[in-house]
Specification:
This protein is an all-alpha fold. It contains 15 helices and two strands. 69% of the residues lie in helices and 1% in strands. The N terminus is likely disordered.
């Protein structure tokens, strides 16, 4: 993986190379703005402003507008956030919002902690941003970075869940190929040893295959194809381990099934791992033994021992 390669326009870099490309407030702001280029709230404000400009403020109009403003302010007076100012403050000379200011502070804090490799602290900042400011324009960054924080922290199961949620919430975002690749890598790195159930490896294969099918021209598709081969090698190692186990215990039918599967489905991986000769010999013996039919019980079992 290349050092410092940007992911989309979020200012993010490839995992396990560098935690984050953005390092100062200006860069973070620019990356966040690029990540949230769609601004439905600003469109709403612009439409509202055009509508208000067409109103003839006679006495009756002023009365109803004043009543509307007063009632809105009364409804929001007991809240920590003034909703009227949040949605329409820009119409009356107030452009800044406490929500966005506080959310931005959390985004910068989380980004800085990621850069410092303090992933636990970064996770706290981004989770707080998600929970307290879910409608902020910075929330999409938090959705993504929660997954990255879990990933770098080594919590691969949690990372996969967070990345899955990002794809579900933002299916058309330009960083989805990166996130899909990260889903596969999270499952891939959750692998333990060859004697365990290869469910995580299988999940990684499925994730990489989805990426390849959905985004065939993405740079992450090229990486996914390389990781697919690594997954195949893991599956072969597992099946070889189990097949050899059956072979040594003279369970030739089970050994034959496992060894045939890897030699037929993953011949390149078998060759890469250097198993070709061993597989060939064990298969040859297993096939001969299976052809003889079921093994007869030993003399000791037949006489009751």
């Amino acid at each position: 993986m290349a050092d410092g390669q940007a992911v989309g326009e979020l200012g993010l870099t490839e995992p396990r190379q560098t935690a984050l490309a953005t390092c100062d407030g200006a860069d973070v702001k620019a990356s966040i703005q690029a990540a949230s280029r769609s601004a439905p709230l600003e469109d709403t404000i612009q439409d509202f402003h055009m509508h208000v400009s067409k109103i003839h403020f006679g006495r009756i109009s002023r009365f109803f507008v004043g009543a509307f403003l007063a009632s809105t302010l009364m409804l929001t007076a007991g809240c920590g956030t003034n909703l009227f100012d949040y949605y329409f403050g820009g119409l009356f000379g107030k452009r800044s919002s406490p929500i966005d200011k506080n959310a931005e502070q959390l985004a910068i804090e989380g980004t800085q902690k990621m850069r410092e490799k303090k992933y636990k602290d970064a996770l706290k900042a981004f989770q707080k941003l998600k929970e307290q400011y879910p409608y902020s324009k910075y929330a999409i960054l938090a959705d993504l970075k929660v997954g990255d924080a879990h990933y770098y922290k080594g919590d691969y199961g949690e990372a996969a869940i967070a990345y899955d949620e990002f794809v579900r919430l933002h299916p058309r975002n330009e960083v989805v190929p990166y996130v899909m690749y990260q889903i596969g890598m999270s499952h891939f790195l959750a692998f333990s040893t060859i004697d365990r159930d290869p469910a995580e490896t299988q999940a990684a294969i499925e994730a990489f295959q989805r990426l390849i099918q959905a985004y065939p021209d993405s740079q992450y598709t090229l990486r996914a194809k390389k990781q697919l081969f690594e997954c195949e090698k893991r599956l072969v190692a597992h099946e070889f381990y189990v097949g050899e186990f059956y072979y040594k215990r003279k369970n030739f039918q089970s050994a034959k099934d496992r060894l045939e599967r890897i030699s037929t489905s993953y011949p390149e991986a078998v060759k890469e791992l250097g198993y070709e000769e061993q597989v060939r010999k064990m298969l040859e013996v297993s096939e001969k033994q299976v052809a003889k039919g079921p093994r007869k019980p030993s003399i000791f079992k037949r006489v009751g021992f």
